[in-house]
Design goal:
The protein is built from 10 helices and 4 strands, in the order E-H-E-H-E-H-H-E-H-H-H-H-H-H. It is α+β, with helices and mostly antiparallel strands and about 220 residues long. The protein has 2 domains: about 90 residues, Beta Polymerase, domain 2 (2-Layer Sandwich); about 120 residues. The longest helix is centred in the C-terminal third of the chain and has 27 residues.
């Protein structure tokens, strides 16, 4: 029934922190709805003890994601570690064919919403945590179009430093503050944050996104 068990995310790339979940994908040849629910319930219980984030997919569905150029699916097979199954077969069969246009549309919708919300209500930790995710995905698109596509946090940070050091000051601090905001929000941690500092981080994040957005526009117009 189970064809692949793959660990992906920060633990697979060696970039985990004390707050990181272990991301596991279970891919089954065939799985009935009740079997999927039983597995999900089992791992939901374990998650409370072991900080597991387990996803279960039908193999047919996973292949469909690869064929459509899913960012998540390609991240799993190229950056993940197989606990069960041989991923080399998948890596040979599915060359990277990222459909960035749809992801870009989704990113811009979320980005516009965050900017609208912050203009109305001010900046929150949630806003900064979302901007962190937006930046990571923008970097994936940018690197796909202009270099070699990358996923991992350390490579994304290095890419930003390489490509935008002249445009953005204090990239190390920006990245650290955004990551901290993400973990603070996801873990519901009670940490006080300086509003002035949050506004500065927000401005830097928006500036970085706008630079990447402009590059992508230029690419699409060539």
């Amino acid at each position: 029934m189970i064809k692949y068990v793959i660990e992906y995310g920060s633990h697979a790339t060696g970039e985990q922190t004390s707050l990181s979940d272990r991301d596991i994908l279970i891919i089954c040849n065939r799985i009935k709805k009740n079997q999927k629910e039983q597995l999900e319930n089992l791992f939901h219980i374990d998650n409370k003890r072991n900080n597991l984030d387990v996803k279960i997919l039908n193999y047919k569905r996973f292949k469909s994601l690869l064929n459509k150029g899913s960012l998540f699916a390609y991240h799993v097979i190229f950056d993940g570690k197989a606990i069960l199954g041989n991923m080399k077969t998948l890596q040979k069969k599915y060359k990277y064919n990222y459909n960035y246009v749809e992801d870009l549309k989704s990113l811009l919708k979320v980005y516009s919403f965050i900017k609208l919300e912050t203009n109305k209500y001010g900046i929150t930790i949630y806003d900064l945590s979302v901007l962190y995710v937006i930046i990571r995905n923008f970097v994936v698109i940018h690197s796909y179009l202009f270099s070699q596509v990358i996923f991992s946090k350390s490579k994304i940070k290095s890419y930003i430093q390489k490509e935008f050091a002249n445009e953005i000051n204090g990239i190390d601090d920006l990245f650290e503050n955004l990551v901290q905001a993400k973990y603070t929000f996801n873990r519901d941690l009670s940490i006080k944050h300086n509003k002035e500092k949050m506004f500065y981080v927000y401005k830097q994040a928006v500036q970085l996104i706008e630079h990447m957005r402009e590059d992508i526009k230029k690419y699409e117009n060539t």
